[in-house]
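Human: If only I could read backbone structure tokens as easily as an amino acid sequence. Take your time, and here it is.
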Amino acid sequence: MDAARKVLVVDDDADWREFLRLSLEDLGYEAIEASDGQEALDSLSRDRYGVMLLDLNMPGMSGLEVVERMPRNGKPRIVFLTSAAAQDVGNALRSGPHYYLPKGASRAQLSLLLQSLEA
């Protein structure tokens, strides 16, 4: 599958990851799951993704730390998909050209955001 249609889902909540994976597959994307920041970085070193859906608050390594440690070449577009406080989300969004969806966003909202990132 084209790398633009591959999405890395990074969240420590297994049920949420599964929901996102199933939603993405229904929308025609290939979804790969990572349960923490280190797993995400390992996956990014092995494969290319068009988009990474990234939680901000995870044990061990925060979403912002993942962004800071990512390889510079071939970086996917980053969507912070989180229930973090507005201030934390604002700080993360200032770290680069990133996007945001609140946890609990509908499948339609997720689809619309992903379509806009493909343009």
The longest strand covers residues 77-82. Strands lie at 6-10, 30-34, 51-54, 77-82, 99-102. The chain has one domain: 3-110.
